[in-house]
Hints:
42% of the residues lie in helices and 13% in strands.
Amino acid sequence: MNTLFRGKHFITDQEWTREELDTVFDVAFDLKKRFALGEPHRLLADKTLFMMFFEQSTRTRNSFEAGMTQLGGHAHDLTPDKMQISHGETALDTAKVLSRYGHGISIRNCFFEIGNAYIREIARHASVPIFNMQCDIYHPCQAMGDLMTIFEKFGRNLRGKKFVMSWAYAPSYTKPMSVPQSLVLLMTRFGMDVTLAHPKEFYLMPSILEETKENARKAGVKFEVVHDMDVAFEGAHVLYPKSWGCLQYLKDQNITDKEQSMAISKKYTDWICDSRRMGLTARDSIYMHCLPADRGNEVTDEVIDGPHSIVFDEAENRLHVQKALMALSMGGRP
Ligand code: CP
């Protein structure tokens, strides 16, 4: 088992080995147990994390900040308007300065074709570990928290289990593609048969689809893409229906107005997770959503508040898995 994590960036779990990710889960389960017992675990005493949010957040902001407090450190909640980024300060200067003051930097920047590049630019110049709190391509902390939750329900051998990542309709805002992309990548890697379902315009980035196919090939599992929600739900064990924007389609059509995604999505208001569809799934199936959910559009109250739903376990596990990542990368052995 590799125990050398100190200083390692977490931009996508694809860049961590399977062994390293297994260690993260082991540590996360241990920290969850210690949290439940009220046992102190000040593994990052007096350390500082700088959290940079270019977008809103409830779960990510509060789980990272609470996590740092529980680990004995402190997190700064930063937004561009509080920083000189708003006056054009570069990623290089921001990375070098924050590296002098603390021990880690976490960033959420979901702007399409900007976010991941910004995080990588910060990582290039920082001398402390960088954590991706969601970008335009990945939401790795979400995927890790989700997989931890699936382990709790089905055990750590997931062979033969069917995971469905389905698009669902949501009128609230155009959501990034990062959650479905990180999920199909990670779930194939950990041995689940993965079905991706979406209306034809809502396809994921070609590079992600290629990587997912390769993950599935290496793991000896299935990866299929379908355009029918009912077909996808048939016999599935894990249902993850959520909305995302058709940003790759707009790019391919040379459409610059991102609002067009919402207009196109209105053709597919029947893509909702309801009791009838849950009835198509395996008897012991689980319903998952990263939250925030568009109740009444992506999912009915009956499903999200019903017996299949594990959305609050899922939200909680963000805390434990991120604490494990921070404890290993910001602390750990030198
Ligand atoms: N799931 C998730 O990342 O939630 P927030 O946007 O509230 O952080």
